[in-house]
Amino acid sequence: MDGVIVEYAGMDAGRIAAWLLIATGAGVIARRIVGGGKVLGLWGDAAIGLVGVFLVGTLMRAFHFDLSVFLHELQPAWSFDLAIWVDIIVSGLIGALLIRSIMRPFVRNK
């Protein structure tokens, strides 16, 4: 028996964990850069990062720009999976920075 593989929306537990780690890292980095207080600690940073990835990714697709395709064309030696992960990291960081910038006047620094 090889083991049990649980998938959700085509992603296994490892990819979901990677998404959560990237989103949390993006939220923490955005909090350090923009400033402001903690919003629910690491859980809030993860939520801000996930929403940031979704918002920036949606905006890029709305304007017919796919960062992963652009990165793959720019660096053909990269695998397309690596370009997708770099796209997720960049989108998460930009989105978290935007959300934190909007939230900063409303969240006091502790």
Description:
The chain is mainly alpha-helical and 110 residues long. Helix content is 69%, strand content 4%. It has four helices and two strands, in the order E-E-H-H-H-H. A two-stranded antiparallel sheet has the order 1-2. Strand 1 (7-8) and strand 2 (11-12) form a beta hairpin. The chain is globular, with a radius of gyration of 16 Å.
Write the layout of secondary structure elements.
Layout: E1 7-8, E2 11-12, H1 13-34, H2 41-62, H3 67-74, H4 80-103
Antiparallel strand pairs: 1-2
Helix pairs in contact: 1-2, 1-4, 2-4, 3-4
Strand order of the largest sheet: 1-2
Taken as a percent bin, the fraction of beta residues is: under 5%
Approximate helicity band:
55-70%
Classify the secondary structure makeup into a structural class. mainly alpha
- Based on CA atoms alone, the radius of gyration comes out at 16 Å
Low-confidence stretches: none
Q: How does the major sheet shape up?
A: 2 strands, antiparallel
What's the β-strand tally?
A: 2
> How many H/I helical runs?
4
Note the quaternary state here. single chain
Name the average pLDDT.
Answer: 83
Question: What's the SSE pattern?
Answer: EEHHHH
Task: State the end-to-end distance.
Answer: 52 Å
Shape: globular
